[in-house]
Write a structure and sequence with these properties.
about 150 residues, 2 helices, about 15% helix, 3-stranded mixed sheet, 8 strands, Immunoglobulin-like, alpha+beta, 5-stranded antiparallel sheet
Length: about 150
C-alpha cells in the first residue's frame, strides 16, 4: 500500500492532468473581424440588394444558398456589415433584387437581368468573375469593401 501511495498515485494524477495541461495554451478564441460592404452605382434605390459572403469557390457567385452568410438590405440602404466573421479568405457577390423575388434573375443565355457586383470589382470579358478574382483576406478586426454595381 505504501508503494501505491508514494509512486503510483502521483503518476496516475500526472497522467490525468497531461491532456489538460497540453491544451491550456490552445483555449484562445478564434480571431474574428467585421466586413463592411458599401454598394455604389445602383440604378435606383427602389429595391433592396442581397449580399452573399462566400468562403469557398463552390457556388460563387450566383448560388447564394451555398454562401457562408447572406444579408438582405432594404431599398434605400447602400451598406451592410457582417460581424464576427472568422479570419480567412472570402469573396462577396451582390445583386440588386429589383423584383423582390430573392434570387438573381437571368435571361435565356444566363446573363443577369438585374444589377450585379463582386468584391474587388474585377472586369470580365465573358462570364462571371472567378472566386480568385473577387477574393480578399480578412486578417484584421475591420475590413471595408466597396462594390460597384454593373447592369448588363
Amino acid at each position: 500500500m505504501g508503494l501505491l501511495r508514494t509512486v503510483l498515485l502521483p503518476v496516475a494524477v500526472f497522467l490525468a492532468l497531461v491532456p489538460v495541461l497540453a491544451g491550456a495554451g490552445s483555449l484562445q478564441a478564434a480571431e474574428t473581424g467585421s466586413i463592411t460592404v458599401s454598394v455604389s452605382g445602383l440604378s435606383n434605390e427602389n429595391a433592396g440588394c442581397i449580399i452573399a459572403l462566400f468562403n469557398e469557390k463552390k457556388g460563387f457567385p450566383a448560388k447564394t444558398a451555398r454562401a457562408a452568410r447572406t444579408l438582405t438590405i432594404p431599398s434605400g440602404v447602400t451598406s451592410a456589415r457582417f460581424d464576427a466573421v472568422p479570419y480567412g479568405t472570402y469573396a462577396l457577390t451582390i445583386f440588386h433584387d429589383r423584383n423582390g423575388n430573392g434570387r438573381l434573375d437571368a435571361n435565356f443565355l444566363g446573363m443577369p437581368k438585374e444589377g450585379v457586383g463582386t468584391s474587388n470589382n474585377p472586369r470580365t470579358s465573358f462570364g462571371p468573375p472567378s472566386f480568385n478574382d473577387a477574393s480578399f483576406l480578412l486578417d484584421a478586426p475591420e475590413k471595408a469593401i466597396r462594390v460597384n454595381m454593373r447592369y448588363l
